[in-house]
Protein: PaaI family thioesterase
Amino acid sequence: MIEELKNIVEEGSEEEQQILALALSAIRHRRERGKAFLSGFLGLNGEFVDERTYRFDIPLTVFMHNSGGAVHGGILATIIDSAMGSLINRSLPPEEYAVTTELKINYLRPGKGERLVAEATYLHRGQTLVVMESTVYDDRGKRVAHGTGTFIVLKR
Structure:
């Protein structure tokens, strides 16, 4: 593995080197913050807009592109799910957590550009079930995808 990594560093294409840099970033993200590797690969950087809205600002990378040069639909679904999951999980007490039980996505236009922004908000917040929505925008402010999800709140 060391030889293969060395070969990519020395002779790999720019895209291969970018993917390797993302892998290192994901490992650092996991070690320093204890978060999922996927968050590091996607460069998820989130913040509360208000107590009912959470936002991710996401740089687009070669890792996210499909063969047509747009953001892969699975990546958009992951971003939507992650925005909603971050909103609910960051608002729960330490003895509780929430997981997705249902996810529905509408793809509206190709995700292209330099960055994406995802915003999530509540539609209904019950004691056990939480229904949310999230929208992803491109760097021109155009809506790329919209999703809704249901999350169940569980005890640790």
